[in-house]
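Sequence, please.
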């Protein structure tokens, strides 16, 4: 029986059989990773957020070409709870054999500042596989919200802070972090409305139940293009190709409001380095796949460069982001319950 806190949805990705890589292994004991035969069973990529959300979408884009490169099958498993920390914790404590992989976003760098008893350490509990993509955020509102531009929005929230509602997907979610930056940049404290995922938050925004929110382009591009929500700006230094008419926050008059949501793949600490190398190679192959490039472009993002899809670049990014968000969260005085 599933619980509301840890909901699991398993979806098979990729249709390749294990073929010769499996040999005659019929699923007895767990095979030892580190051998040249890896993978000898299905690989599970854990997404610590709900199915259909931005991180889930990115994971499913790369899973099939990664499986094809590895000569096996990848299963995507959604393990929700506590801002992504439940799923991350499960992977941190999994057998370090290469068969349990984590896809996580910027939340990996914010969790230590938000949670007092995290149960894992981002830099010490995992081996990094490589970065995947950096997704821009958009500042969006219900389509009938009064402010017409970002500057109008800033003026409006300053005058109406007690009644304006700012939706997010829960403490530590990318939408929450973006909302914190907005409040810091504008010097306003707003009425935050947390949801259990970006999907329900965006649904209520479209329905007019909340006023505005920050969310990733992978989740908002369709609604923006369809005119279902109002868009003010994209939170990156450059405009997004899929939304060319949407100004950057700097262009729209809020230069201190820049954030993107980076994603990366992890395995438990102690996973053999030859297995890590195979996963990194498969990731690079997936990110170079034209179908993946095209799918990401439609959602306002792109794969990282090949040199960033490496353990070294991934570790450097995580170290830097831990420092950045630790200060932002401490200054905001936010703690997860």
């Amino acid at each position: 029986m599933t619980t509301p806190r840890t909901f699991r949805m398993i979806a098979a990705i990729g249709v390749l059989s294990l073929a010769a890589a499996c040999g005659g292994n019929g699923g007895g004991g767990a095979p030892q990773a580190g051998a040249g035969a890896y993978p000898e069973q299905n690989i599970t990529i854990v997404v610590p957020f709900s199915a259909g959300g931005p991180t889930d979408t990115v994971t499913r884009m790369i899973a099939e070409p990664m499986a094809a490169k590895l000569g096996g099958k990848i299963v995507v498993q959604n393990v929700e709870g506590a801002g992504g920390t439940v799923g991350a914790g499960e992977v941190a404590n999994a057998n370090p054999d290469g068969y349990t992989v984590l896809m996580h976003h910027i939340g990996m760098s914010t969790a230590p500042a938000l949670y007092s008893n995290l149960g894992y350490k981002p830099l010490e509990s995992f081996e990094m596989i490589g970065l995947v993509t950096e997704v821009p955020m958009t500042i969006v509102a219900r389509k009938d919200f009064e402010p017409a531009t970002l500057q109008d929005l800033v003026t409006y929230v300053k005058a109406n802070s007690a009644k304006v509602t700012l939706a997010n997907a829960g403490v530590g979610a990318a939408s929450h972090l973006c909302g914190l930056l907005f409040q810091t940049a504008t010097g306003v404290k707003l009425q935050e409305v947390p949801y259990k995922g970006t999907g329900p938050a965006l649904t209520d925004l479209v329905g007019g139940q909340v006023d505005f929110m920050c969310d990733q382009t992978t989740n908002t591009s369709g609604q923006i293009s369809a005119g279902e929500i109002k868009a003010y700006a994209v939170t990156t230094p450059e405009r997004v190709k899929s939304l060319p008419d949407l100004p950057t926050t700097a262009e729209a008059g809020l230069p201190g409001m820049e954030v993107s949501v980076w994603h990366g793949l992890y395995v438990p600490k102690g996973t053999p380095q030859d297995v890590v190398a195979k996963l990194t190679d498969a990731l690079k192959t997936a990110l170079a796949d034209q179908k993946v490039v095209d799918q990401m472009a439609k959602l306002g993002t792109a794969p990282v460069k090949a040199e960033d899809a490496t353990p070294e670049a991934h570790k450097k990014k995580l170290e830097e982001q831990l420092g950045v968000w630790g200060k932002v969260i401490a200054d905001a005085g936010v703690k997860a319950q």
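The longest strand covers residues 126-142.
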